[in-house]
Write a structure and sequence with these properties.
Helices cover about 40% and strands about 15% of the residues. It has about 220 residues and is an alpha+beta fold. Among the domains are: about 5-65, Winged helix-like DNA-binding domain superfamily/Winged helix DNA-binding domain (Arc Repressor Mutant, subunit A, Orthogonal Bundle); about 145-220, Ferrous iron transport protein A (FeoA) (SH3 type barrels, Roll), CATH 2.30.30. It has a six-stranded antiparallel sheet. It has a two-stranded antiparallel sheet with strand order 1-2. The chain starts with 5 loop residues before the first helix and ends in a 5-residue tail after the last strand.
Length: about 220
């Protein structure tokens, strides 16, 4: 198979990440994720199907083939390792790293990525809490649940965020909520499903939308 273009790699990665979030992948969801037109997406899906990288049948969810999944996982692995490097070694903050890692993830050298993984100490999760696949594609899933589903009166810890958009992460910066932050659900507001929380000893009200993007776990369950 000929070398894939950056666009083709981005499509495979997007399909993988939508699947990772337990979403049924369709033309429209890819178009929304990549901010492309449905017509452009349809053309690319035909190319990827012809190359044996996806399975695409009318009115059915799009799926990666084993080869397509292998390529996608490798791109995701590189992306998340570079994000970790940018934060851990170069002092970037978590809202700055995604677009830079988008460029670095297309570097082809397997040796470089292997050395990068070793240099970082073989991290299991990136700065957003997403799992980093191993060279053979294995990874340790994030153990937790959305803050929007958390019980009241329990000590919790933030383990991941489901949204890596800059505006969302900047808001979390503003309220001093990061991976590892301690959080306590004080009350639920039935009218709009928002929750009252104590974050690092500061009481705040979070909307249901924001709370649904924050993954937490009971402190006793975190290893």
């Amino acid at each position: 198979m000929s070398k894939l273009s950056l666009t083709e790699e981005n499509y495979l990665k997007t399909i993988y990440m939508l699947t990772e979030r337990s979403e049924a992948v369709h033309n429209q969801s890819i178009a929304q994720a990549l901010q492309n037109t449905p017509a452009s997406v349809s053309d690319m899906l035909k190319k990827l199907t012809k190359k044996g990288l996806i399975q695409h049948e009318p009115y059915k969810p799009i799926q990666l083939t084993s080869k397509g999944r292998e390529i996608a996982i490798n791109i995701v692995r590189k992306h998340r390792l570079w994000e970790t490097f940018l934060v851990k070694c170069l002092g970037f903050t978590w809202e700055q790293i995604h677009p830079i890692a988008e460029q670095l993830e297309h570097i082809e050298s397997d040796l470089l990525i292997s050395r990068l993984d070793e240099y970082l100490g073989y991290p299991k999760y990136d700065p957003h809490g997403d799992p980093i696949p191993s060279p053979n594609g294995d990874f340790q899933p994030v153990e937790g649940f959305p803050l929007s589903q958390a019980p009241t009166g329990k000590k919790l810890k933030v383990v991941a965020v489901k949204n890596d958009k800059k505006d969302f992460l900047n808001y979390l910066n503003k309220i001093n909520l990061f991976i590892g932050s301690h959080i306590y659900v004080i009350d639920r507001i039935s009218f709009d499903l928002s929750i009252e929380v104590d974050i690092n000893n500061k009481v705040l009200n979070l909307s249901h939308l924001i709370a649904s993007q924050i993954i937490v776990n009971h402190e006793d369950n975190i290893q």
